[in-house]
Amino acid sequence: MVSTRSRTSSGTSPAAELPQKRAAAADASKRPAKKATTPKAAASDLAVGKPVTKEVTLRNQEEKEVAIADTFRGQGVVFFMYPRANTPGCTKQACGFRDNIQAIKDAGFTVYGLSGDSPKTLSNWKDKQNLPFDLLSDPEHELISYFGSSLPGKKVQRSHIVVLKGGVVGDIAAKVSPADSVNRAVKFVKENSEAEAPKDEEPAKEEEPTDAEKFAEGNTVSFDAELQTDASVAVKVQDLFKTRGAILFMYPKADTPGCTTQACGYNDNLEAINAAGFDVYGLGADSPAELLAWKESQKYKYTLLSDPKHQLIGYFGSSINDGTRVERSHVIILPGGKVGQIEHNISPQDSVSKGLEFAKSHAIGAASKL
Fold first, then answer.
1. What whole-number distance in Å separates Cα of residue 84 and Cα of residue 103?
2. Reported pTM
3. More exposed terminus of the chain, fewer Cβ within 10 Å: N or C?
């Protein structure tokens, strides 16, 4: 015979728990609900018309400390940011500010370069390019980030900020080309000049056009500098067209298929071009040694010019990709320096045919001695 046992619960029965749960829920509903909190990201307050509030001290190329707040106490400041010292585009930007430094100072402003490079790197670059202003080292992107120019991976976006005397932001330019950065900044400081007005009223002088505006068909070449030939001989640009016309053709890189087609085309037509009173010059960023090797392998009978810093190439408007590449193009200059023809983004064959056609239709005299 199987016996059965009755089971008793030592805890509270479900029926008894139900009123307690309802009471707890009712009590909880009377308490105010907690508001969800979202952490706010710290945002830069930098904007045109507002003062610079960032207080930071950086080192310049001489390892000397520069307090940013001190830079614009008695003058305006142009801070230009660049990806990396001693690279083509950054050198073009820095040298542009160098070449316009007097106009900037006359307007009551000064210039500071700003990047993540070390003071030693900046010192070498400053000496090499003869830059007449301080370069600030900001490896942690303290000021670069505040200016909105810091990119992922500690990269720097090419840009510039103009701060008026006293610290109010006057202009912000981001994602600018080297040339546009310089031109825009110079234009701004001239329009916001703090220099004393002349005592005697004089007729307003027309603003000096930029190099890009000066270089155009019908205008005279104003650029003057020395370049190295394929034989490592220095030659003045102005001497190329003193008494004869000159065809200067630009190409991306020596000893590459398209560039060789272009160069050989001019070589094959050199006699006809010379007879018309024009000389031919190849213009690239390659070194004199590279140009000489290319010249000897193809037996070119004209001079190749080395322009690694894109000085003349940039003036001609053929420096692209932030100064890292040369656009295939050509420029024809008449004796004395007047620009006769400008052709950009042209094929090797079209460059040769158009250059030859122009020379024949503007025939002017005997052969070159260079």
1. 25
2. 0.46
3. N
Q: Where are the alpha helices (DSSP H) in 61-118?
A: 68-71, 88-99, 101-106
Residues 285/323, Cβ–Cβ less than 8 Å: no
Assess contact for 272 and 356: CB atoms under 8 A: yes
Both structure tokens of 354: 């158009």
Q: What is the C-alpha separation between 29 and 356, in angstroms, rounded?
A: 91
Give me 334's structure tokens. Answer: 């008449």
| Max Cα-Cα span within the chain | 138
Residue appearing with tokens 């001239």:
190
DSSP 32: P
List active site positions. 90
Long-range CB pairs of 213-222 (<8 Å, 24+ gap) are 215/315, 215/316, 215/317, 215/339, 215/342, 216/339, 216/342, 217/339, 217/340, 217/341, 217/342, 218/338, 218/339, 219/338, 219/339, 220/336, 220/337, 220/338, 220/339, 221/333, 221/337, 221/338, 221/339
**Rounded Cα gap, residues 174 and 157, in angstroms:** 7
d(CA 59, CA 136): 6
CA–CA–CA angle 202, 205, 105 (5° rounding): 100
Strand-strand pairing, 303-306 and 278-284: parallel
C-alpha to C-alpha distance for 207 and 190, rounded to whole angstroms: 9
Q: Return per-residue pLDDT of the chain as tens, 370 residues.
A: 334 444 444 444 444 444 554 554 445 444 544 433 333 333 457 899 999 999 999 999 999 999 999 999 889 999 999 999 999 999 999 999 999 999 999 999 999 999 999 999 999 999 999 999 999 999 999 999 999 999 999 999 999 999 999 999 999 999 999 999 999 999 999 999 863 334 444 545 555 555 444 678 888 988 888 999 999 999 999 999 999 999 999 999 999 999 999 999 999 999 999 999 999 999 999 999 999 999 999 999 999 999 999 999 988 989 888 778 999 999 999 999 999 999 999 999 999 999 999 999 998 754 444 4
Query: Rounded to whole angstroms, what are the CA distances from 294 to 230, 249, 257, 260, 326?
Result: 9, 15, 12, 9, 17
